[in-house]
Specification:
By secondary structure, this protein is α/β, with parallel strands linked by helices. The relative contact order is 0.17. The chain is 46% helix and 11% strand. Helix 3 (51-61) packs across helix 9.
Length: 216
């Protein structure tokens, strides 16, 4: 059943786990925590070319002096994210004003039961809610090879949890990138610099709306 997913699974599992970026000193303006996997960590890209720095640059070009902290770990699953959330928040040294939660792609590529993925993501969102940290949920779509039942159950996770925890939802983190070779690295899975740029352009309005709520 997973034969056609082997290239994707290999890319997701063979990447050496990257340690989330060390926190910097406290600065003015909103602090955004980008909490995710290789798609957040900028897998295969040079320093300053990944999602967090590109989003930070884009926000600043739009007049929002935010700092986006890269807490992406390549190869991470929702289980891994759940296990490291407390440590990540502690290391930040200050409470983030907003968290972008981007996890679940590796669960899907490994065929993890959607109930497990949902339970882990709910634990993450529950903890962030408990700490008063607003969230943008970055959703994911399932590979069609996994079948309609898996796809239905998996893809329902993100909007359901966003509604439950009153989080902003960006339905598909890789919108406009999947299937476009010009926006992908040689592995055909991870976005290149231009692919990340497309991702940032897509999610930017959602992040802006979430930040605007903080000022109300």
């Amino acid at each position: 059943m997973f034969r056609h997913l082997l290239p994707f699974i290999a890319a997701a599992t063979s990447a050496i786990p990257a340690t989330a970026q060390a926190p910097q000193g406290k600065v003015e303006g909103p602090l955004i925590l980008a909490f995710g996997d290789s798609l957040t960590a900028g897998y295969g890209l040079g320093r300053g070319l990944g999602f967090a720095p590109q989003l930070q640059d884009s926000l600043r070009r739009h007049g929002i002096k935010a700092r986006v902290h890269d807490a992406g770990v390549s190869g991470d699953t929702t289980s891994g994210g759940r296990a490291r959330l407390g440590w990540t928040l502690q290391r930040l040294g200050q409470k983030p004003d907003l968290a972008i939660v981007e996890l679940g792609a590796n669960d899907m590529l490994r065929g993890v039961d959607p109930r497990v993925t949902e339970a882990n993501l709910e634990a993450i969102l529950s903890e962030l809610d408990k700490q008063g940290i607003p969230v943008v949920v970055a959703g994911m779509l399932a590979a069609p090879n996994l079948g309609p039942d898996y796809r239905r159950r998996y893809e329902a996770i993100f909007p359901a949890l966003a509604r439950k925890y009153d989080a902003d939802l960006y339905p598909f983190f890789l919108q406009g990138v999947v299937g476009n070779r010009a926006l992908l690295l040689g592995d055909g899975v991870h976005p290149n610099f231009e692919g990340v740029k497309r991702m940032v352009t897509g999610i930017l309005p959602t992040v802006q709306r979430a930040l605007a709520k903080l000022e109300r």
